[in-house]
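Example 3.2
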Amino acid sequence: MRLSMLLDLCLLFILHLQHQLAYSSPSHPSTANNHLCPSEQSQALLQFKLDFTIDSFASADCDYDEQYSQPKTMSWNMSTDCCTWDGVTCDRSTGYATGLDLSCSQLQGIIHSNSIVFQLSRLQRLNLAHNDFSLSGVPRQIGRFAGLTHLNLSYSNFSGLIPPEISRLPNLVSLDLSSNDQSFKLEPNSFKTLLQNLTRLSEVSLSFVNINSVLPMSLSSSLSSISLQNTGLHGILPDKVFQLPNLHTLDLSFNKDLTGILPKTNMSSPLRWLDLSATSLLGELPDSIGLLKSLNHLQLTGCNFSGSIPYSMGNLTLVTFLDLSDNRFSGNLPSSLSNLKQLTQLDLSFNHNLEGQIPDVFANLRQLTSLSLRGNNFFGPFPSSVANLTQLEVLDMSSNSLTGPLPSNILQLPNLTDLYLYNNLLNGTIPSWLFSLPSLVQLDLSRNQLTGPMHEFQYKSVEFIDFSNNELTGPIPLSIAELENLTSLYLLGNNLTGIVDLDMFSNLINLQYLGLSNNNLSVIATNKSNVQLPSLIWLRLSFCKLKEFPPMLRANENLDVLDLSYNEIQGEFPKWAESRWGDSLTYLNLSHNFISGLKHFPWKKLGILDVQSNLLQGPLPSSICNLSSLEILDLSNNSLGGVFPQCMGNFSNQLTVLNLQNNGLVGTIPTAFAKGNRLRNLNLRGNRLQGTLPRSMVNCRNLEVLDIGENHINDTFPHWLETLPELQVLVLRSNRFRGSVSSTSKIQFPFSKLRIIDLADNEFTGNLPTTYIRNFKAMMNVEEARTALKYMGEVNYHEYYDDTTVVMKGLEHKLPRILTIFTTIDLSNNKFKGGIPDIIGSLRSLKVLNLSHNSLVGQIPPLLGKLLVLESFDLSSNQLGGEIPEQLADITTLSALNLSRNHLVGRIPRGNQFNTFGADAYSGNSELCGPPLSRNCEDSETPKPPPPPEVQKINDLDFASGFTWKVVLLGYGCGTVLGLAVGSVMFFIGKPKWFIGIVEREQLQKVRRPITGVFERERQRKVRRREERSWKKKLEIFLRVMIFVVNFYLCAFEIQTMYINLNKQAAFPSAGFMWHKEAALSLRVSSLEVSLSWFYDIEDHVIHVWLQNKDSVPVAICVGPEE
């Protein structure tokens, strides 16, 4: 019995010892008094376990972050103490769970508000991060954990409103709710309470939580880490955040509405990590940034900082990561950057205004592993101090203006993996050390001016090579065929020579991108080794003298881009190629070959199909309408015939370019262009299409180019096209259009973007379309010619350019690319009549104007001399008369002129380009004279020099107003004769009596009785005196009438000339032909004073009228400022 009791005691001791060891181990804490986990707690945890399933994808991001997920709850069961379970921590004295860490536990399911886990009221730490709680909301019952100090619910797919109870957990020290569903939201009041009232809170991470609030002005001094990335913060960043005494981490990045400037003083916090990227902070970076001497991570990318980089940046001697990219910094790099000896990553890319030579500040930065200066204005040579950066892994100086050759003596870059120097002005040969870097993976020297041959690669680590668009010569290095890891090889656009057998790439099983286009290579495909490139998805072999489809593509099923254009491939498209790439091919360019057949289109994802300039024959297969993803279709310049498939009007919602020009298609244009289509270019030129233009084209709201020239369309002018807001090229030439082109539309700005309009060789009638011409705004923008050259269609990422054909100098010119500054009007070979509208002179950017072979009459408007960039001008075969305006000689860009077969007269202008034109330009105008014609002008053997500008201006004014000194003298002469005649008649016949009565105010009194003596003598003396006064009055009448008539004539003539001026204002809008207000008013006052002069003294009035007319008339005639 004693033995039995002894055995029981031993067993109890062993169990006690097991528990003691278990609870004392780090992974299984124990209670000091050996208390077991309470049963109700075990049951609660097991019930919590049953609420979820295990799914490894629920914690996939843990594996990405190298935290490694594992299903911790799988080991939970009732046979063991819950305090020993994985992820559970218990109080050593009570056995109650104080910590639950189920992060990366592959849990999937919903946390319910009545979950039994909330009975674990003594929890202090709760970590459920990196699971998938299926858009659960955070239950309000979380507020029961009053003793909670650490809460982590990040990366767990929570959604909805964060309960305010979290912001009332008084003991909270660390809170992480970051990176959940985008609907995860925290109310601004709860946000403010968190940062201000939780005095123990040290670390808060709410990144990617929808807060949409301002940052509180005052924050708890206990905060040491604040992470609020992409939370919708707005307003001004308070300065006090940089004065928090314990703050070492501040991340406010990706809050685009957060603005303000950094404080110039009092940046005294012990910050070690500062990230303000992608905010709207602006202004200069203050010198006070140098006070943050504890910084080791500074990231300010994508803000609006400007000015120079402060010299004080050199005070941040502990910084290891510095990113100031994508701002507006300017000036030179400060030399103080050489003090940052701990720096491992430096990124100053995309500031665009950083300039000057790159200083040699890198000699001391021996720890630097990544250096990026991309996208600035640095010039000068490649910095030699880079050779000292032995730890450098990534070097990017692309998209600058670096010049000169690369240094030839760099031998100490053993760790360099990525080198980007593309889009510079580097020249010379590629140094051999670039081919000897042992760790090199990415090498991009494209778009420079490098010459000479390529060397052989010494190591096989290279994966990416881009030498395109240089001037390299010689053959392709054979060592490239040994680069087993190579995925991308771009050698396009050089002067490489030699024969390239595609068999050389047989070992490159990882090759995905291969471009050899635009060289002097002769590519052959012997396929002796049965080459297969299973990974190839991108192949460009244009201008490679290829004679057949590469056989190595037979086994490839993932091809995405294939360009075999400008080769010598003959025969039909191979059937094996039709059956391949059905689910992968998006781009196929076979243009400019000799392919005679392409009957099937099985490629479901094909976006670009370019087979122009081949030998395709037969009808266009309707199966092409199955290409529902097609964006660009170009089958132009072939021999396709048959009826135009009606399905092509709306077979693809993605179609932007449909080019079928120069084929033999018949029938009508499709009548159903669907609403919402994206068609931008419709070119059906050079077919045999009939019928009318379908009105459904008004649904093509994005249409920029419409070319249906050289068909048999029988219709009136399609006025409804003026509603297309983007139309820039309209070609209707050589059809059977008829009727007037004049507009009666109420559209405010019809055809405002039109640059090219060609209506030639039709049967249009009526006057030239002045209303439309007045709205050709795109032809009036002369400033656009000074901007960088652009081509229509250039924005397309597949480099497909719009094309058209224009007639200049009587010859057709194919424009494979249409410059956006090229403008032309061709209305020739129609039946237009009337005059040439002056408004054409406002089309200041016009390059070509052809109005020939019409019935235009009148004179050539002098305002056409303002077309100062005009290159081709044709008015031949009309009925134009008058002289050739001298202003046309001001057009210094004119290279082609044809004014033949009109009724022009007078001297041919000389000067500038007019001195270069031959007699053919003026033939058929019998009244023209002067060089280059043999007929001399009558007034002189040689042409008179043009008058000075001032005299010319006055002559133009006289011509426009019709009021010259000859007319004035004629008016005064006629007025004088008429005044004498009328005055004499009135004087001698004494009529009208009321008028004579005004003069003879005193009637002779009748003498009732004879008076003698002194009285008689006095009476006779008075009679004589009255007679003398009567003669004076009559003379006064005579002068007054004469002056009145003259002034009346002048006033009438003034009204007449003003009426003439109003009618001529459109012809001379820039000249000052309106009468001066004061001069005209003076004439009117003069006339008025004449009519009232009966009440003034005759001598004073005659002098006054003479002075008024002397001063006013010359002013009114000679001075004509524009009003």
